[in-house]
Design a protein that fits this description.
326 residues; alpha/beta; Rossmann fold; 2 domains; 5-stranded parallel β-sheet; binds phosphoric acid mono(formamide)ester
Length: 326
């Protein structure tokens, strides 16, 4: 794997999930694979889970990790080719990235969208400029439109949960699980990355009945959702669900806006009653009692901690493939 920025960089998603679960069973089995290799992690935006889990994953492969909070501690970077840099930017990515390419063996980058210019965000200009100029494999720690390590983690968690449920209810293995991605309320405009990415990975995996539910006006880019059923009635969407993935996102059109949602979109225990005892997922961080209620987050159906802990194994499987250029 020369880069990891979307599901399209993976030849066999099921195999990658299995590799991640093998690392979960035996974290140190490849502890020398990354010996004398360095991972540079650039954060243009905040992170907790991605930062910590990626470092742990690299350590378990014997890699050294260097974290650079370039967004808050580095020189302000310019990304436009041909820019006349007489404003606030201090260093061009075409000067900075090749240096990082000499310091590190793999470069990992987190960057968020501006949510102002859809063409620029959906063009993935920032991460593509690093890929263009770094000259080494690039790993996305979340980009303007996608969050592939999160989505791989989500599929790992779903597969693990199915295997666990099958011990009591073997019938779950005889059908495709029903996965529902539901929009949730929030106080501010958030990127579409996690929802786009989850849709892209579930569709590419092809092992689920997949429904997306959201208020009218919150349709996601069809390049990611094609293959899923869109259902505007949340109650109907949730019927017989096995997994509910909760996430807020702002509108794709008009881009970055918050059209009025109408109705009650926050998930409750009452809504879960009509599901197949659905397990509830969220990538975190979550605004409690805005996006998801305490009763769900602290209840028996929540998978959030297990899901976040699985970030380590997703990152380890991906780094392992990148180190071996598989
Ligand atoms: N889910 C996720 O990416 O968490 P962080 O923003 O804390 O890394």
């Amino acid at each position: 794997m020369k880069q990891f920025i979307s599901a399209h960089d993976v030849t066999n998603i099921q195999e990658l999930i299995n590799q991640a679960l093998a690392y979960k069973a035996n974290p140190w089995k490849d502890e020398t694979l990354g010996k004398h290799k360095r991972l540079g992690c650039l954060f243009l935006n905040p992170s907790m889970r991605t930062r910590l889990s990626t470092q742990l994953a690299a350590q378990q492969l014997g890699m050294e990790t260097v974290i650079f909070n370039v967004g808050s501690e580095g020189w302000a970077l310019e990304f436009e080719d041909g820019a006349i840099m007489n404003g606030t930017t201090v260093e061009h990515v075409k000067d900075a990235a090749p240096i990082m390419g000499k310091y590190f063996d793999i470069l990992a980058i987190r960057t968020f969208p501006g949510l102002k210019d859809r063409e620029a965000d959906y063009g993935e200009h920032i991460i593509k400029q690093f890929i263009k100029y770094a000259g080494i494999p690039v790993l996305s720690l979340e980009s303007a439109t996608l969050h592939p390590l999160q989505s791989l983690t989500d599929l790992i968690t779903i597969q693990e949960s199915i295997a666990h449920t099958a011990l009591q209810k073997p019938d779950i293995l005889e059908r495709k699980p029903k996965i529902v991605l539901t929009w949730a309320p929030h106080v501010k405009a958030l990127p579409q990355c996690v929802a786009n990415s989850f849709a892209q990975w579930v569709n590419a995996w092809g092992q689920a009945e997949f429904i997306i539910t959201h208020p009218k006006g919150y349709e996601l880019d069809e390049q990611f959702t094609n293959g899923a059923t869109i259902e505007y009635d949340q109650d109907k969407a949730l019927e017989n669900a096995d997994f509910i993935y909760v996430k807020n996102w702002s509108a794709y059109h008009p881009y970055g806006t918050l059209p009025p949602a109408g109705g009650e979109w926050i998930l409750t225990n009452e809504k879960i009653r009509h599901t197949c005892n659905a397990r509830v997922m969220h990538c975190l961080p979550v605004r409690r009692n805005v996006e998801l209620s305490d009763e769900i987050l602290d209840g028996p159906n929540s998978l959030i901690t297990q899901e976040a802990s699985n970030r380590v194994w997703a990152a380890q499987a991906v780094l392992s493939n990148m180190l071996q250029n598989k």
